[in-house]
Each structure stands twice: as C-alpha cells, then as structure tokens.
Specification:
The protein has 451 residues and is an alpha/beta fold. It is 20% helix and 25% strand.
C-alpha cells in the first residue's frame, strides 16, 4: 500500500465530534449517542450530497464540476467511447454496474473537474479532441483552487477509455497533459505511448497469464487476465468486469495523483468523521452523508452490511448504529493510510447485553464480555467513503458467547476421540494483537485429539 509522503496533503478539516479527537489520541473510542432511531431528530435530517449539474459546451463535449464537499479540483480530461449507458440507479437492489458509476461521475467524486469528450457520432457541430482541449480546458479554471499550490497549474491529466478512437497524430502533438492513462488491447502495435507524456496503459488478455509489454520508463503497463475486451472498466459496456474495473481505477488514480500532486484529502479525518457519526452522534443520516452516492459495506464473516444507498441506509438504521451496546469500546492497534484507502487493525469489545445482529446474527443477549480483533479495509473516493470491508474471526466470537464448544467428537479410519478446537476462548487473540509477548505463541499446536 502506498503511503502519503507529505504531511501537507491533509488539507481538509471536517466537523468531527470533539470527544472523538480525545478518543483518537488515546487510540480508543467508547460509544455514546441515542440507543434508538428517531426520524424526527435534528441529527436524522437528510444530508444533501454534493451536486453540480453538467455543462454541455458542444454536442460531444461537457464539463462536470467536482462532486465533493470541497467543490474544486484539478482538471481531468476523459476521452470516452460511444457505448450504451449503464443502467440507471433506482430503488431496485443495485447491481455491481450500478454501484460502479460511469467514469464522469466517478472521477468527479474523486475531486477532479472533468472535461468529457465523447467519440464522434457524426454530428457536424462536434468538436475534435484538439479543439475540445484548446477551448474546454480554460473553462475549467472556475473550479480550480487558486490558493492550492500543490495542484499543477495549466496542466491536466487525461484518461482514454478506448485506444481505437485516438488519431495517429495524437502521439506526436504537444498537449497540455501531465499524466496519461490508456485502456487498450494487448499489443504495442495498437497501444502506443506518447513521446513526452508519462503514460499508464491498461491492457486486456484472454489468456490466464499476464501480458508484459516492453514499455520504457517513465511509462508503465498492467494487464488483466481472462479479459478479452478493453471496455472492461466501463459500466454497461461489453466485457465489463467490476473486479478489474476497481483495480484499474485505483492504479489510474495513483498514476494521476502523483503526477498532478493532487487532489489530496485527509483520509483519516474522513474515516473518523464517518465512525464518529456511527458511534458518537449515532446518526444514520449523518453517517450516510459521509459516503458517495452509491456506497456499500461488507461484514465478511457474517455476510451482513448493505449494497447501495437504500439498502445500506436500512442496514445502519435497523442493524448497526443502534445495535452496539452502550459500553462498546473500539481500540486502534495500527492504521495504514494509502492514496485512496485505509487499512486498520483494532479490537472491538462490549458486553453482550442486547442483540448485536451484525456480529452475532440471531443470538439473544448472553451477558458475556466480548473482545475480538478486527480488520477494516476502507476505500475513500474523494472526500467521502465508497466502501468498507470488515473481517474478524467468527469462531472467537462464538466461543466467547458460549455457542462453540472447546471440544468436538472426531472420528476417522485410524482414530477417534475428543478434538480440542484451535480457537481462542477469551481475550488471548485480542491481547496478542494489542501487546507483543502478552500471550505465549504456538500453544494450540499441542492441542488435538484427547482420548
């Protein structure tokens, strides 16, 4: 994971609960706020998402201002193919295509000001790519931060989603582009690098083995196996693949941000704002207000969470925010901050005095003390969360509430008896994570079949 190298990248201050700062310094968060959902509460009034209408400037060219709370950002040019639009996002259960927005919205949510140029459909009033760059880029200055010295001035980044719509002279003309990304097929005969612009190339290969392109520095390429269509990153397009689209987007973002030196956001502040509304203000509306238009949360061990704004709102309201006991404590062990995501280790402890159905679905209160090591992988798009992947050892959770025996009957062709399960039955796993040497290693290796 790429770490931020400059402290001044953390440019945004977010309104967090004051007691959250104290908790963060102690690496421990204890939970407060109401215990029941009240739709009439001032904290449950809908938080409007960032909104900025698209501005058409030619039949095949438009401007999309940034869709962030910051409201400004550096210029990014998107050269887009004419393929069917993705399915509209509605009230139905979202698909992966609906969760992954089309490129104009996605990159605006990342904090860029977008100049979108669509491939020709034959309209006589269409602009060429060079005319769109010449006349469109100056118009993006309205959404640039005039005081942001980290943003490269008079330059833009560019993403080409279909190499086949590029003209031959594209690779020889001088362009006001600082970083270039191209999606294409798997040979350099069809996918070229620009003579002066650092270029990242995403190629597809129908083979199960990655393709290696002989590209000189400062250019770079990645290949995506078992992928036959280079539109794999375009929702609604042929060959769309959510997994490859997500990976290629993160690589493109890293390539562009490092060369444009931005836009940067304080990811820790965004994450703590989100968790502050989950556990301190206990507000569904404010929690959802920290997330992109279509977010999701996956609690992997119990397959709980929510996909899409409607379902995730219901999950937070009915199964998470008000389901955590009053004495819940979350203790941070480590945190790694990347370019667009956070990886965190923490322990999660509470008294099981009420139903905690996201963690122990269907299990009535047992009154037991619970202390579980957890991992969170959090993806942040611009200045709002996109998704959370949370994992933990469910066997440890069941052992601590008395639902999993320490021994089970075992039998095979050679032996039988009571098998001691290699699972932690108390705080050992959490203590091992919290304090090096607090628990003797390898004890379970002496366990096994007994009698």
């Amino acid at each position: 994971m790429t770490l931020l190298a400059k402290d001044d990248h953390a440019q945004q201050t977010l309104p967090l609960p004051s007691n959250l700062f104290i908790a963060a310094k102690m690496s421990t968060a204890s939970f407060e706020g109401p215990m029941h959902y009240d739709p009439t509460s001032e904290h449950e009034q809908e938080v409007p998402l960032p909104s900025a209408p698209r501005i058409p400037i030619a039949p095949n060219v438009l401007i999309q201002p940034p869709l962030t709370r910051r409201g400004y950002g550096p210029p990014l040019v998107l050269l887009l193919p004419n393929i069917p639009n993705p399915p509209p996002i509605g009230e139905a259960t979202p698909t992966t295509e609906q969760i992954d927005p089309e490129p104009v919205q996605k990159w605006a949510e990342e904090g860029f000001t977008i100049l979108a140029i669509f491939a020709s459909k034959g309209d006589q009033d269409e602009w060429s790519m060079l005319k769109a760059l010449e006349e469109g880029l100056p118009r993006l200055g309205e959404w640039e931060d005039k005081g942001d010295l980290d943003v490269v001035k008079d330059k833009a980044a560019m993403i080409v989603y279909d190499h086949s719509i590029l003209s031959t002279d594209f690779f020889t003309v001088t362009l006001p582009i600082q970083a270039l990304v191209i999606y294409g097929s798997d040979t350099l005969e069809t996918v070229k690098t620009h003579k002066t612009i650092p270029t990242l190339i995403h190629v597809c290969t129908p083979s199960s083995r990655p393709t290696t392109l002989p590209i000189p520095s400062p250019h770079k390429s990645y290949s995506y196996v078992d992928q036959s269509d280079h539109h794999f990153s375009f929702p609604g397009g042929p060959g769309y693949n959510h997994h490859h689209a997500d990976i290629s987007h993160a690589r493109s973002l890293s390539w562009i941000k490092k060369r444009m030196d931005g836009p940067w956001f304080d990811l820790e502040a965004i994450w703590e704002e989100h968790t502050g509304h989950e556990f301190f203000t206990r507000s569904v509306a404010k929690t959802m207000g920290t997330m992109v238009a279509q977010p999701y949360v996956n609690h992997v061990p119990t397959i709980t969470g929510g996909v899409g704004r409607r379902d995730l709102t219901a999950f937070y309201r009915d199964h998470f925010i008000f389901s955590n006991p009053r004495d819940t404590v979350q203790t941070m062990v480590s945190r790694c901050v990347g370019l667009d995501r956070i990886a965190e280790e923490f322990t999660f402890s509470f008294t099981h005095d009420q139903m905690v159905d996201w963690l122990l679905p269907g299990v009535p209160p047992t009154g037991k003390q619970i202390n579980i090591p957890m991992n969170a992988f959090v993806s942040i798009r611009g200045d709002r969360l996109y998704h959370e992947h949370i994992s933990w050892d469910q066997a440890t959770a069941y052992r601590q509430v008395g639902l999993l025996s320490s021994h089970v009957q075992f039998r095979n062709a050679e032996m039988s008896g009571q098998l001691r399960l290699p699972t932690s039955d108390g705080n050992d796993a959490a203590n091992m994570l919290m304090t090096v040497g607090a628990v003797q290693s390898n004890q379970m290796m002496s366990w096994g079949l007994e009698g």
